[in-house]
Amino acid sequence: MGYNLVLNLMENGHEAVANDINEEAMQKIKAEGAEIAADYKTMVDMLPKPRVIWLMIPAGDLVDQVIEKFTPYLEEGDILIDGGNSNYKDTLRRAEKLSAAGIQFMDVGTSGGMEGARNGACTMIGGDAEVFAHVEPIFKDISIENGYLYTGKVGSGIS
Q1: Cβ-Cβ contacts under 8 Å for 129 (sequence gap 6 or more)
Q2: Rounded to whole angstroms, how far apart are CA atoms 93 and 33?
Q3: What is the residue-level pLDDT of the chain in tens, covering all 159 positions?
Q4: Domain 47-152 belongs to what topology?
Q5: Where are the domains of the chain?
Q6: CB 3.0 to 4.6 Å from 107: which of 16, 73, 91, 130, for a disulfide?
Q7: Minimal CA–CA distance to 106: which of 118, 122, 94?
Q8: Is 134 within 8 Å of 109 (Cβ atoms)?
Q9: Please, are residues 36 and 19 in contact by the beta-carbon 8 Å criterion?
Q10: Are residues 93 and 61 in contact, defined by beta-carbon separation less than 8 angstroms?
């Protein structure tokens, strides 16, 4: 879904920096015009502040592992979005841990599968209201018309 989401973002005028463990996938998205980053530090360095990093990986331990790899390079005010429909208890735990470093965490329930990621998803977004206001244009652009909803505090987007 990440590949299609990046295409959707770019089609709607957003710059995207992509990373994937699959080198073939990275080269494929690069051929579509996305910038790619070989590692997490490079990706963070390529993004404007406050950085918005959107994870589109399967829910579970992998999300924690990727967050741990990103965290040393993130700064206060950066925004990390989990679009993998994680368990809300995991989301609350992650948000609390990241909050201690001043990193904002948002959870996004994403509906529509591969087709939605490419042509307009339905998204339910949980997190701080001010942070949502900052990223709302992204959700408006990548969702179907009226297809995104701010649901309130972190953990509510995936419930």
Answers
A1: 150
A2: 35
A3: 889 899 999 999 999 999 999 999 999 999 999 999 999 999 999 999 999 999 999 999 999 999 999 999 999 999 999 998 899 999 999 999 999 999 999 999 888 877 777 888 899 999 999 999 999 999 999 999 999 999 999 999 875
A4: Rossmann fold (3.40.50)
A5: 47-152
A6: 91
A7: 94
A8: no
A9: yes
A10: no
